[in-house]
Amino acid sequence: MREPILVTGGTGTLGRVVVRELLDAGRDVRVLSRRSSPEQSLFERVTGDLRRGTGVDAAVSGVAAIVHCATTLGRADVATARTLVDAARRHGNPHIVYISIVGVDRVPLPYYRAKLEVERMLTVSGLPWTILRTTQFHDLIARIASLQARSPVNLTLGGAAFQPVDVGEVAVRLAELAVGEPAGRVPDMGGPEIRSHRDLTREYLRATGRRRLVLPVRVPGAISAAYRRGGHLAPERAVGRVTFADYLAART
Questions:
Q1: Which of the residues 102, 160, 166, 234 has an alpha carbon 20 to 30 A from that of 226?
Q2: Which segments of the chain are extended strands (E)?
Q3: pTM higher than 0.90, yes or no?
Q4: For 5-251, which CATH superfamily applies?
C-alpha cells in the first residue's frame, strides 16, 4: 500500500482540483482541513489548523509527499509554512511541493515577499522539495472585475498586462510533481496569452452581459511600476492552453 499524499488547502480553489487529479491518478489522498466532516469521502480528512499548529503532526505523519496549497494571502504564510516544515522534519522528511507565483522576486508586494521567504525556507529546510511558480489564475482576474459589479465604472491597473492561467492545468502539473521525484525549482508556468488588464476586463464584461465604462488608472508606487514592467509575467513560459475567453465561456 502506497503512502498517501497530503494536500494542504485541499478544499480551496486550487487544492480541491489537485485532490481530484491525485485521486484520478489512483493515489491515496489526505486533506488537512479546519473543519471536520462526518460525510463519506474519497479522501482522508484530518482536522487541524496550520495557523494554530493543531492537527499538523497527525496530518503529515506517514505521507509520501505534501502539496502545500494553503495560503493566508499574507505574511502569515511564512509562519504556517514553518509549522508545516517543522512537522515534516519530525515525520519522515516527506517531499514538499510548493505552489508559488511568478515575480515573487521582482514585485515588492508584501504577499509576494512572503511567498519568496517560504521558497527560501524550503531550500534550506533539509527536506526534499519542488517549487512551481505560476502566473495569476483566471478566476482572480474575473474576481477583480466582479467586485466592482455595482459600480458604473470598472477600474483597471493602467499600463499593466496579465497572463492568466487555468487552475485545472496548474493542478495537473502539481499532481505530476507530487508523484515524481523532488526537482527543486521547476520551470515557471504561464497562461497562453498576455493581455492588458483593460482588455481582460472588457472580455469579462462582454461575457457576463454587463455594460460598464472601463477606466485604466495609473497607480503610483513601486508595486504598480513592477506590474507595468511585467515582473509578474512569464512570456517565455506561455505553456497554458486555456485562454481567458475559454474560461469565461465555460463559466457562463
A1: 166
A2: 5-8, 29-33, 44-47, 65-68, 95-101, 129-134, 153-157, 161-162, 184-185, 195-196, 213-217
A3: yes
A4: NAD(P)-binding Rossmann-like Domain (3.40.50.720)
